[in-house]
Structure formats: C-alpha cells, structure tokens
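Q: Make up one entry.
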Amino acid sequence: MEQTAFDDPAYRAAAVDLLGVLAYGELTAFERMAEDAKLAPTLNDKAELAALATTEFGHFQRLRDRLVELGVDPMDAMRPFVTPLDAFHDHTAPSDWLEGLVKAYVGDGLANDFYREIASFVDAETRALVLDVFGDSGQAEFVVDRVRAAIEEDPKLGGRLALWGRRLVGEALSQAQRIAADRDSLTALLAGSVDRPGLDLAAIGRMFTRLTEAHTARMTALGLQA
C-alpha cells in the first residue's frame, strides 16, 4: 500500500488541527455575519451580507467533509479551538455595522492570509482545499464599497475605524499565539521535520512581512491608515 503523509501520526495531528481550527473559524464567521446582517442599514445590505454568510457556511461544510474523509469526527477536531476563537470574538465584538464590516475584511483577512501560509506545509489535497476556501468570496468589493462611501459622507469615521482595524490586528495576533502555544502540532508543522522542511527564522520573517503588507493593502483599500 502506498504511504501518504497521513501515515505519520505527527503530521496527521497537525493536519487535523489545521482543518479543525479552519472549520470552526468558518462556522463562527457564518454565525457572526448572519448576526451582523441585523445591523445593516438597508435591505440590500442585509441581503448582501446574508449571502456572504451563506458562502462562509459552505466553506465550513467543505472543511467538515474533508475531516470526515480522514475518518475524524469534525466536532472533536473543532472543540479545542472553541475557547480561543470565542474569546477573540468576545473581545472584538463590533459596536456598529461599519465595525462589523471592517472586522470581516481586516480581521478575517489577516487570519486567512496566515492559514494560506500554513497551507504550504500540508499535503496537496488539503492545501488545494484551504487555498480554494480562502480565495476571494466577493466580500472585499462589498466591504470596501460600503466603508469608503461611509467615510466620504462622514470623514471623522476614518480615524475611529483605523483604530479599530489596528486593534483587530493586535487581537488576531494574540489569538494566533495562544493557539500555537496550546497546539504543539501546528507549531511543529511550521518547524518541519527531517524529511519535511519547515520555516527557519529568515523565512518566518519574510512570512510576517507578507502578512503585514497584505494587511496594509487592505486598510489602504478601505481608505484607512494602517
């Protein structure tokens, strides 16, 4: 029988953890967007955000199905990440519609970039799924349009939303550090092994440079200072 990466227990644990955290992240994104739709100022905005929420749920289903294919109970895979991800969302609950949009675009965008980086270290099938799930779902155009229009109408919003964007990044990085500290498998995935190269310090530095540049580009697109 042909060996696969999943024959390595350490790799299997890491891949399951990655799929588990992504699945729970998408499930909570669906829940959050559906809730934020209640704050929408117009019926059209409510429908647009509801459509994006539906897309997030579709992503959750695909990640859940991949876990099932691997013989893993998706609920068990997600459970370790409930507390840290719920804590992040509790600490970054938006106070209004615009803060909710910035969170969906900036906060989720940074997390998605990070998971795409990690996807470089998993098997081809899992990597393709992760990259597909975290491709552009149409969210960017919708959020950028609404936020820029609001700032044009009331320029004072720019300062408040810029501060909010910076706070989201700080919370997101803290959340990622907590998860990495709790789940040795994910740290090991990035560190690599004898037959599976990982990231050295220089590569880690380049990765964070890419994450920072992508975050700055999103803030600029919104008309906000990073």
User: Anything to note?
Assistant: The chain has a mean pLDDT of 86.
